[in-house]
Design brief:
It contains twelve helices and 17 strands. With about 375 residues, the chain is of the alpha+beta class. Helix 9 packs antiparallel against helix 12. About 35% of the residues lie in helices and about 20% in strands. Strand 16 and strand 17 form a beta hairpin. The protein has a single domain, classed as Chorismate synthase AroC (Chorismate synthase, AroC fold), CATH 3.60.150.10. The chain is globular. It binds ligand EPS.
Amino acid sequence: MIRFLTAGESHGKGLTVIIDGMPAGIPISIDFINAELAKRQKGAGSGGRMSIEKDEVEVLSGIRFGKTIGSPISMIIWNKDHKNWGDKMSVEDQSDEVKDSARITAPRPGHADLAGIQKHGFDDVRNVLERASARETTARVAAGGIFKQFLLTKGIEIASHTLQIGDIKVDSEYDFEDIKATYEKDPEIRCVDAAKSREMKQLIQNARMDKDTLGGVVETWAVGVPPGLGDYAQWDTKLDGLIAQAMMSIQSVKAVEIGAGVKSSGQRGSEVHDAIHHRDNQYYRKTNRAGGIEGGVTNGMPLVVRVYHKPISTLYNPLQTIDIETKHPTEATVERSDICVVPRAGVVSEAMLAYVVARAILLKL
Ligand code: EPS
């Protein structure tokens, strides 16, 4: 069974990931993984960090002559910015003076800051924010580069697009080819509708001027998924439950939806369920409101998963917080931030969906 773990702080030396359980013999291209990492770095709404980093993976183990060898795969992406943070993020230095000068005491509302220091009894928010940062998604995307290449050998493809930013939402029809094309056609927003894309971009520019942030919705499809993945028989093997857990774990995601999920709760059953047809020895549906899963099991239709990102919590116009040292009101910490992560978060959703589908396939095999 495959599993993966990431490690690394936002301004530490680098982000690492170990994937265990990949079968031997899967062809792996490092360029493919680097192209995935590049997708995570592009997009309107990015902060200053993305112009410092040029994320590239170094594979340390598990791949030989371009193929997996069935051993754990370990990878690292070095943080170029670390050299500017050596004093604040030193592994080796043990002096209290350096440690104190790197301390942060004003937790940001909405981030893991306060909850994290309460969990561990820390007097320094930096211990929490360095790991809670969405920089960690770099490691997930590198892992996704492996899972996706495995899925391609099974004829399964995954792609995402920006469905909504703030209150601007796509309402036109589109298909999987339209979704895939957004990486080329609209790398800034990744929207299938050019007019909506312009509105979304303007909204992000306005939020930047107002020193505010924006959330939105990423929709991810997996096509070529065979019927029968996941299980209806036990709560913790239902594929929709596993997808929800994986997607909800992405930084700033506050809701996950499969198929027509939210909308269908306000409709009648006759408007929601997808009638079953049969042709050439195969069952099929003309609609896909179930989003490719019924009873926790894939039905052969594309998986359609939406994640809802809240506006990120580091605000250049900070909210009030409490200084954990003095207990007096103060403004929340701002070092640097994105305005909107949605356009570049798509590849993170893709990586997590690729993991769940790859794992389900290997369990079935
Ligand atoms: C990110 C790197 C971080 C943030 C962002 C995502 O780098 P820095 O803190 O140096 O600017 O830009 O993290 C957050 C949005 C967050 O809330 O933590 C990245 O590589 O994606």
